[in-house]
Q: What sequence folds into this?
């Protein structure tokens, strides 16, 4: 994952409601799966292992966030468990195919949660986080993001 992607995810997380957080986790997982494939192509074994580890972390968060008392949580738990096993197979065989199998499962789930997220009118999960205003300024050869209200108690209650 590039530095810019990390910054984008961080910004989105600070402004997201609970359903949007799930979408972001799925998107991060897909990004790490791509990183794993790229690392394999570059024969970067350490990068491959790191991408698998981070993808497992995303899956773990998704699995832990499920409320198994309600449908379709048990089915989603099974799908995530299958993806964890595919990641293990990819790491063991050093193969891209299990990563592609996991991606084929994760992508439709992400798309479904993305549709649901549009219906969730709850506010951001993170209260008292930095307010971000959409706006960029153009420099001579750069695009600069400006943020207002960078108070001393960012994210903390006084």
A:
């Amino acid at each position: 994952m590039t530095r810019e992607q990390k910054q984008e995810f961080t910004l989105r997380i600070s402004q997201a409601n609970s359903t949007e957080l799930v979408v972001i986790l799925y998107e991060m997982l897909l990004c790490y799966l791509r990183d794993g494939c790229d690392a394999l192509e570059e024969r970067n074994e350490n990068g491959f292992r790191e991408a698998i580890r981070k993808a497992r972390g995303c899956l773990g968060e998704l699995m832990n966030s499920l409320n198994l008392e309600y449908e379709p949580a048990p089915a989603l738990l099974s799908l995530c468990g299958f993806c964890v096993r595919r990641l293990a197979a990819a790491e063991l065989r050093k193969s891209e195919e299990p990563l592609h199998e996991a991606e084929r499962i994760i992508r439709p789930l992400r798309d479904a949660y993305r549709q649901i997220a549009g219906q969730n009118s709850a506010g951001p999960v993170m209260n008292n986080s930095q307010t971000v205003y959409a706006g960029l300024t153009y420099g001579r050869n750069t695009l600069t993001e400006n943020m207002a209200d960078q108070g001393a108690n960012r994210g903390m209650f006084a």
